[in-house]
Amino acid sequence: MEPGTQGGRSPLTQDGDAAGFDKGSTTQESEEQMSTEISTNTAPARGLALATFDDAFRFAKVVAATEFAPKDFRGKPEACLLAIQHGAELGLSPMQSLQSIAVVNGRPSVYGDTALAVCKGSPVCEWVRERIEGDGDAMVAICEAKRRGDAEPVVSRFTMADAKRAGLAGKSGPWTQYPRRMLQMRARGFALRDAFPDLLHGLITAEEAQDYPTTPTPPREPVQVRPKFDATPDAEPVVPDAQARATSEDMVKARHAVQQAKTEQRLIAIRGTVEKRLLDEGFYTDAQADELFALIDGKLEIVTGEEVAHAQPS
Fold first, then answer.
1. Strand 204-205 relative to strand 107-110: parallel, antiparallel, unpaired?
2. CA-based nearest residue to 230, from 242, 221, 238
3. Beta bridge partners of 133
4. pTM higher than the cut 0.70
């Protein structure tokens, strides 16, 4: 007797012939029923489905009020909401997003292990390979990321020499405790961003963001730049700052201003400026002033068509 039968007959077809069932129709219905069960018993998606903004914000407020939220998100439902949105763009569930997205030194970022999972989970990723070569100062982390359809993989290397140039080697914290791991995270972050920019949407790894400076660079003292002589006819004459003696560059600018002057008024204004700088401020030497006066007088004769008396300032 076969399992599932009674007296050698199927329970569905006891007196099956009289009920109008034959073996063929019974088998066909059984297959159809199995097919229906398979199609309707698909496992539901894991986690909550936050379909609207209100759903997401209510969820964020609940999480932010509990210890399930990472420390930086506790009591901050708005930050939780944005982290959930960032994660959703990477294909992460809400709770995965809160555990994997971080704002480090003012920049949203994703932890390196999550970035690797996002990329490996995409059909566009063919493979990702990582390795560490060498030891000590010769240590180098290598990450190769192959995008499906590309001829060659993206290869990224980050060496201990790179870490030293960036001021990372020997830095207190992970760079002292786990230098191999930190090299690996840097190489991984660069390779994944280059190979799969459409998957990471510009997010850097949190391990990289942690190495960014936390304090703003102090503003530098303003640089005092000597203004050029303005060759515009209607502009007031502008001369170099009188903090030092006129240099050869200043003289070139002054000569150029005289050459560019087109009117008598403009030339007279330049002459007045040179006289002031010579007598009051000592910017020009006597020899420099004499040269400029001669140039101005010569240009005046050209502009006015009259001979100019070459008088020196008293």
1. parallel
2. 238
3. 140
4. no
